[in-house]
Amino acid sequence: MNIFRLAGDISHLLAIIILLLKIWSTRSCAGISGKSQLLFALTYTTRYLDLVTNYISLYNTSMKVIFLAASYATIYLMYLRFKATYDHNHDTFRVEFLLIPTVLLSLLINHDFAPLEILWTFSIYLEAVAILPQLFMVSKTGEAESITSHYLFALGSYRALYILNWVYRYYVEGFYDLIAIVAGIVQTVLYCDFFYLYVTKVLQGKKLQLPA
Predict the structure, then answer these.
(1) Following CA atoms 147, 156, 67, 32 in sequence, which dihedral angle do they give, to the nearest 10 degrees?
(2) Transmembrane residues, as ranges (predicted)?
(3) How many Å apart are CA 60 and CA 153, to the nearest integer?
(4) How many of the other CB atoms lie within 10 Å of CB of 198?
(5) Which one of 72, 91, 126, 157 counts the least CB within 10 Å of its CB?
(6) Can you tell me the distance from the alpha carbon of 209 to that of 176, in angstroms, rounded to the nearest whole number?
(7) Which residues, 6 or more positions from 207, have their beta carbon under 8 angstroms from its beta carbon?
(8) Taking the model in full, what pTM does it have?
(9) Residue 191 half-sphere exposure, CB side, CA atoms within 13 Å?
(10) Highest mean pLDDT: which range of 10-14, 48-52, 193-197
(11) Which pairs with CB-CB distance under 8 Å and at least 24 residues apart come from 196-205?
């Protein structure tokens, strides 16, 4: 465990807490993409199937359980508890355009053509693009609430910190995973425009609004 991975995990956990508190405190999931949340739940489900086969550490197991539980709790709140507040009209991204390529890519480019390894690879590819429905939703509405912006910033920071984690591991441990590194870079690049708007607007107390 290095400082970059720990900081990335904390940022990821913070993003989840911000999202759940936002939904619960406002009793609304307005501005949140249910499709992105479903993709994240699928990501963690396919990635953490090794919970029943491999034990690495208490920390590792705990974080996996937390991410899984939080993902399904979010889906419950959005699609059942507060479904009347869910904005179907703006959450219109065609997720099949993400699912089909990631399935094919995981079958073609992986470390080992074994079921758990293919599912893990699929989860890495899917996570890289799972935020697109949320970003597309923000682009359609033209703005995002401050709390939603904080959630997106924490989520994007998690992936950026994980890139630093891979750099650290390469130089210190001589280990690298090209699939995870490339996917992480792709995911971070998708957040670049948002990061710029977050720093120039949200951190200065302004509402995040996209240029007309």
Answers:
(1) 40
(2) 65-82, 94-113, 119-138, 150-168, 174-199
(3) 24
(4) 21
(5) 72
(6) 38
(7) 143, 145, 146, 201
(8) 0.93
(9) 25
(10) 10-14
(11) 198/149, 198/152, 198/153, 202/146, 202/149, 202/150, 202/153
- CB 151, CB 18: distance < 8 Å: yes
Cβ contacts of residue 60 below 8 Å, gap of 6+? none
Rounded to whole angstroms, the Cα distance separating 176 from 181 reads 8
56: tokens are 């690495």
For CA atoms 117, 109, 100, 61, the dihedral sign is positive
Element (H, E) at 209: strand 208-209
The dihedral of CA 190, 149, 152, 92: what is its sign? negative
Residue 43 in contact with residue 72, Cβ under 8 Å? Answer: no
Residue 99 vs residues 2, 19, 46: alpha-carbon distances, Å: 32, 24, 13
The answer to whether residues 52 and 68 touch, using CB atoms and an 8 Å cutoff, is no
Show the CA angle centred on residue 152, arms to residues 92 and 201, nearest 5°.
105
Amino acid at 151: Y
**Cα 120 → chain centroid:** 15
Per-residue pLDDT tens digits for 146-196: 778 899 999 999 988 999 999 999 999 999 899 999 999 999 999 888 888
Lookup result for tokens 């994240």: 40
* Residues β-bridged to residue 144: 208
Distance CA 107, CA 101 (A): 10
Residue written as token pair 């869910």:
86
